[in-house]
Write a structure and sequence with these properties.
nine-stranded parallel sheet, binds alpha-D-glucopyranose, 19% helix, six-stranded antiparallel sheet, alpha+beta, 700 residues, 12 helices, 26% strand, single chain
């Protein structure tokens, strides 16, 4: 072991290290105790050596201890821009920032001045001035923190932990390597990409129907209505209030008949009550998290005193999964796991005591809450997902979670917790969503319109006009605030929101293909602008304009003078409606083809039979794009039941030929009706519609 000279704290280089993949090295501190960290929740497969770390390897973690804390410092040199850290409040670029990994119910992101939020991703990505990039994972669930400057420093309250370092030529490659280690998302159901209407809470069931009807009457394309806690009987999970929701199946049928899906909330806290099935079962089997004395821990949440399933135990996860069977059979389509930091009321820490006990199992050692707190939500959603899949084996599960941990994107999408109707928080939702994507979680978004406080017509219009280009699009608001559905703000706001949501639905062929990309290689759906040109330093801090996939730049209307990548990113307009002053400006990458569908009112009606291909040629007169489509809800795509097309454009003289070629999948679909929207600096020129796979266009 080499001691680093000149260091007062006595840092030491790794005791052991190896390469686990091309450009991926693992470093172990001396005294490393695997039982305190493994099996790791982060990695899909246990890390294995494929060879030695070369002497040329640049980034070498240095390990130390101080005041009982385990410390790792990674000197990275000057000029690095930092990103990642998972769910963070504050700027996109993380230089000089500290993040605390201790999942916290953080209303308005105010806990520890925004240093601590609902999820933990002990992960940093660094991008050097020349565009090369690296990433660092601290494989550690214990309470910890990270700071980023010329050194990256992780500090943990638990025992010494190993560190994985990824070294690559570009941020793209770093993200691909990260998600090779942590896994890719499953294909989400297509409906989960639609517009979703939520509130705490729509009740009774007649109100839910009214909301669904209003969405259709007002012609707001939409796919999902959400049921928050008030559908339950006294907030007891897996129950329905007999008066307010007497017939859940009937309600879900009503929604399904109108092409809506129904998502319902399930929290982890189980009301302590004799005779309540869930509490009785968990108590009889002794499934609860224990306090330091070994008694079932009781903490208060919505139902009052609650027990908490010990999700570190495989048998508890299995039992939890079984609870979903009858529940899903009422026609529930998706599940919302909330309060799973876990949040506890009436205690200063807003969570369980750190010395609570978890039993582990399946290779996982028993341990304190200090070790397992950050993966409480992670293990919960893992169990939920498995249970939902058992209940409906032929449907892609949809779980939304508030709390999670690095790697937990394999089990659930996420929203960024309790924000507020505040323009500053609307703006902050961009870097937050981007950094989550840069941490391997591509499927996320904020409460559109803001959760706390009253939204204004202007704010809802602004937020919806940009929010429709986020991966997850849900309007949600807190009890006691003014109604936040688009039609409650008057005709003008309704029109603005409808136009924005129409555009989301028209872009679905493009957006769904981006989810397919995330499923294949882990690339985020929403990306920071610097991904357009990683060598251009002027893009590195841009956090108002962003990219949806690689080809579409979104500039919110409220944004100031945003940075722009070089080249002819020409403006596209998805439909010829008069400018309302709110819609985000969209720009298309030179050399790309963006597929746009006809307007549909929901994803059941949505189809790609008639497509407009927006073509923005590169200086060589060429462009390419991709369209992926499948049945949207089942797993048959895994057996080749899909169609994957490549669109190409090439120029000969004055003639541009645009071709759609099937490039994968067994689906044989009828030829599409196509037209090309030829995107230039002077506007868009359309070809007439024609049926077939080739469109020829004569340039003026
Ligand atoms: C939490 C959630 C919020 C939900 C509320 C009531 O605050 O973050 O989205 O509406 O609980 O269930």
């Amino acid at each position: 072991m080499a001691l680093i000279l000149g260091s007062s704290m006595g840092y030491a280089l790794a005791d052991q290290s190896y390469m686990t993949d091309n450009g991926v090295a693992v470093f172990y501190p001396s005294g490393y105790d695997a039982a305190q960290h493994e099996p790791s929740p982060i990695f899909v497969n246990e890390l294995k050596s494929v060879g030695d770390v070369s002497t040329e390897w640049n980034l070498r973690p240095e390990f130390s201890t101080s005041d009982g804390k385990s410390i790792v410092r990674i000197p990275v040199g000057e000029g690095v821009d930092f990103y990642g850290n998972g769910e963070v409040a504050g700027p996109l670029r993380r230089n000089g920032k500290e993040v605390r990994f201790w999942n916290t119910d953080a209303p308005k992101y105010e806990a520890d001045e925004g240093r601590r939020l609902y999820q933990s991703h002990p992960w940093v990505m660094g991008v050097r001035p020349d565009g090369t990039a690296f990433g660092v994972i601290a494989d550690n669930t214990w309470k910890s923190s990270v700071t980023m400057d010329e050194d990256i420093v992780f500090e943990s309250e638990g025992p010494a932990f190993r560190v994985v370092v990824i070294e690559k030529e570009s941020p793209d490659e770093v993200l691909k390597a990260l998600t090779d280690l942590t896994g890719h998302i499953e294909m989400p159901p297509l409906w989960a990409l639609g517009y979703q209407q939520c509130r705490w809470s729509y009740f009774p069931d007649t109100r839910v129907k009214e909301i669904a009807d209003s969405l259709r009457i007002n012609k707001i394309p939409s796919d999902v209505i959400w049921m928050d806690i008030d559908y339950m009987d006294k907030f007891k999970i897996f129950t329905f209030d007999k008066e307010k929701f007497p017939d859940p199946k009937g309600l879900n049928d009503y929604l399904h008949d109108r092409n809506f899906k129904a998502v319902y909330m399930i929290d982890p806290g189980v009301k302590v009550e004799e005779g309540y099935r869930v509490d009785d079962q968990g108590t009889a089997a002794d499934y609860w998290v224990k306090d330091a004395s070994g008694k079932p821990y009781v903490g208060e949440v919505w139902p009052g005193p609650c027990h908490f399933p010990d999700f570190t135990r495989p048998e508890v996860r299995e039992w939890w999964g079984t609870l979903y069977k009858d529940y899903m059979a009422t026609g529930i389509d998706g599940v919302w796991n909330d309060m799973n930091e876990p949040a506890i009321f009436n205690v200063e820490t807003s969570t369980m005591p750190e010395d609570n006990r978890h039993l582990g199992g399946g290779g996982l050692a028993p341990g304190s809450h200090l070790r397992y707190h950050n993966v409480y939500g992670y293990n919960m959603v893992k169990a939920s997902r498995d249970g939902i899949l058992d209940a409906n084996p032929y449907k892609r599960p949809f779980v939304l979670t508030r709390s999670n941990f690095l790697g937990g994107h394999r089990y659930a999408a996420t929203w960024t917790g309790d924000n507020a109707s505040d323009p500053a928080l609307m703006k902050m939702s961009i870097p937050m969503t981007l950094n989550l994507g840069l941490s391997g979680q591509p499927f996320n978004g904020p409460d559109i319109g803001g959760f706390f406080d009253d939204c204004t017509p202007e704010l809802l219009a602004q937020w919806t006009s940009m929010g429709v280009y986020f991966p997850f699009v849900r309007n949600h608001s807190a009890a006691g605030t003014r109604s936040q559905e688009p039609w409650t703000f008057g005709a003008e706001t309704l029109d603005v929101c409808r136009t924005a949501i129409n555009r989301r639905y028209r872009l679905l062929p493009y957006i769904y293909t981006r989810f397919r990309e995330a499923y294949e290689d882990g690339m985020p759906v929403m990306r920071p602008l610097f991904f357009a040109d990683v060598k251009d330093p002027s893009l590195r801090r841009e956090q108002e304009a962003f990219l949806l996939g690689g080809d579409l730049m979104v500039v919110p209307r409220w944004a100031g003078n945003t940075a722009r990548p070089s080249g002819n990113w020409n403006k596209i307009v998805l439909e010829d409606t008069p400018d309302d002053g709110f819609q985000a400006n969209l720009y298309q990458r030179p050399g790309s083809i963006i597929p746009v569908a006809e307007l549909s009112q929901n994803t059941t009606e949505y189809n790609t039979d008639k497509l407009t291909l927006f073509v923005n040629l590169d200086p060589d007169g060429k462009a390419t794009g991709r369209i992926y489509e499948d049945a949207g809800e089942s797993f048959e795509f895994r057996d080749g039941e899909y169609a994957d097309y490549i669109a190409t454009a090439s120029t000969h003289g004055n003639e541009v030929t645009v071709k759609l070629t099937q490039n994968g999948g067994k689906w044989k679909k009828a030829p599409k009706s196509l037209r090309v929207g030829f995107v230039t600096t002077n506007g868009i020129e359309y070809t007439p519609w024609s049926i077939g796979d080739t469109v020829v266009f004569k340039k003026m």
